[in-house]
Amino acid sequence: MSAAESPETTERSKHDVGWRRIVRNFTPAWFSVNMGTGIVSILLNTLPYNGRWLYYISILIFVLNVVYFTVFLAITLLRYILYPEIFRVMITHPVQSLFLGTFPMGLATIINMFCFVCVSPWGDGAAYFIWAVWVFDAVVSILVAIGIPFILTTRRNGIDLSAITAAWLLPIVSCVVAAASGSIVADILPNVQIALATILASYVLWGIGVPLAMMVICVYLQRLMFYKLPPKGMLVSVFLPLGPLGQGSFGIQRLGKSAQTIFPKTGTLSSSTGEILYSAGFLIGILLWAFGLVWLSLAVGTLINSRKFPFNMGWWAFTFPLGVFTTATCTIGQELPSRFFSVLGML
């Protein structure tokens, strides 16, 4: 070490180069890649007009998503083990903390695809394994959905209305996504009592996420009316309200369908409860879908009006919200059944 170099300079340079720099600057926003990749694999696996070749592509993308998630999780754990002080800074940051919701949502896409492609050939053990993973995902979703808004509202430095973006929905939508995943997990469980508990827990998750998301959407609409469009770097975030609306629609429809099957088997409430929940789920689902159509029109109109906007990590906001809105559209087409909704979902 030369006389000009101090220990502080050496220590700082070591953490600002190489793999340490990557680990130190790795934020939760990277899990949005899992969300986007995961919803693509789910769509290719469940589209109404599908082919065997699309099924195999969905498997490849599913494996790619698992690799992404494993790598991102390893880097995240390494980040907070090596730099534990960063966690406190991150969780109180007005922007970075919002992306904590992408972790359970990215994991939920893996849970869904595991149910679709792995449980049938691997048996009951795989079903109980993925149910345990879903329980973990649901707990994390609740902690994030309630904890992050609480932390943000208790910060010493206030947040102006003009600074609010649709990213405020990210921690809240995690509960809505977990609820939809719960309906899929319940369908593959061999034990009907555990399946019933999963459905009821999923209704609770849906009840936490969707009303809270509606409140944030109202605030976000107020922000747009008062301060116009967000900066061009955040412009793609106008698609984010499609997330809770599309996934909320898909989830409540799937939960109603699951309740229609599980409630009579377990003797829960009256004999007609399952049918009532199924019909109510479809009605609520199509209303949420219609509200999502409004936001889709506003988002597309915003991009047409802006014409040019820079490429950044926020572009993943195109993929997951549009993807879950598509799953809601296709589910409506399956339940009616309706060629219109099925073709629209394919488009």
From TrEMBL:
Pfam families: SLAC1. InterPro entries: SLAC1/Mae1/Ssu1/TehA, Sulfite_efflux_TDT, Voltage-dep_anion_channel_sf. GO terms for molecular function: sulfite transmembrane transporter activity. It is found in: Cell membrane. It comes from the Eukaryota. GO terms for cellular component: plasma membrane. Keywords: Cell membrane, Membrane, Transmembrane, Transmembrane helix, Transport. The chain crosses the membrane at residues 29-47, 53-78, 98-122, 128-152, 164-186, 192-221, 233-256, 276-303, 315-334. It is a multi-pass membrane protein. Belongs to the tellurite-resistance/dicarboxylate transporter (TDT) family. Sulphite efflux pump required for the secretion of sulphite as a reducing agent. In the presence of sulphite, cystine in keratin is directly cleaved to cysteine and S-sulphocysteine, and thereby, reduced proteins become accessible to hydrolysis by a variety of secreted endo- and exoproteases. Excretion of sulphite mediated by an efflux pump also represents a detoxification pathway for dermatophytes during infection of the epidermal stratum corneum, hair and nails, which are rich in cysteine. PANTHER family: PTHR31686, SULFITE EFFLUX PUMP SSU1. This is Sulfite efflux pump SSU1. It comes from Aspergillus nanangensis.
